[in-house]
Write a structure and sequence with these properties.
Layout (H helix, E strand, L loop, with lengths): L1 H23 L9 H4 L5 H13 L5 H15 L3 H6 L8 H4 L2 E2 L2 E2 H20 L3 H13 L5 H11 L2
Antiparallel strand pairs: 1-2
Length: about 160
């Protein structure tokens, strides 16, 4: 009986959440940092900008949007590449001057360093062949599904 109740409740909850998503998820949501994330077409860039936007999403909406806009200008057209190459010991004068409420540029530099370490840790868990494939695809700007990436090395060995 409990499992039936859980399934019924989760279906009801899922339906309710889906309806709320449909009602409030708007492409033209002008006062939402998601608009900045959606400017990027590459998934890795979207993830980096979304992570940074979420980390900075406190305070007035206008202030949050301004800070995220400033950070994306600094990171350039490829935020994921910027983070993967980020060196915390570099001067970063463009970051050092940033302020978002009580968060200073050095805090934002620390955020980017932490994000780089998270990405590096995930990549280091891959087999060397997978790392090389990922690097080649990243340099070429290729996006692919995990299943197609997994199948590629097997095809090349034939």
């Amino acid at each position: 009986m409990l499992s039936v109740l859980c399934v019924s409740t989760s279906v009801t909850l899922a339906s309710r959440l889906d309806s709320l998503y449909e009602a409030y998820n708007r492409e033209d949501a002008a006062a939402d940092p998601i608009q900045i994330v959606r400017r990027y077409t590459r998934r890795d860039d979207q993830e980096v900008v979304g992570f940074c936007a979420a980390a900075l999403a406190f305070g007035r909406v206008a202030s949050v949007l301004n800070t995220v806009e400033t950070l994306t200008r600094i990171m350039g057209a490829q935020p994921a590449a910027y983070v993967r190459a980020f060196e915390p010991d570099a001067p970063h004068p463009e970051l050092r001057g940033m302020v978002h409420r009580w968060t200073r540029g050095t805090d934002i530099a620390a955020l980017l360093w932490i994000l780089r370490q998270m990405i590096d840790r995930q990549v280091s868990r891959l087999a060397m062949e997978e790392q090389q494939l990922l690097e080649a695809a990243s340099v070429a700007g290729v996006e692919f599904s995990a299943s197609s990436a997994a199948a590629t090395p097997a095809k090349s060995q034939r």
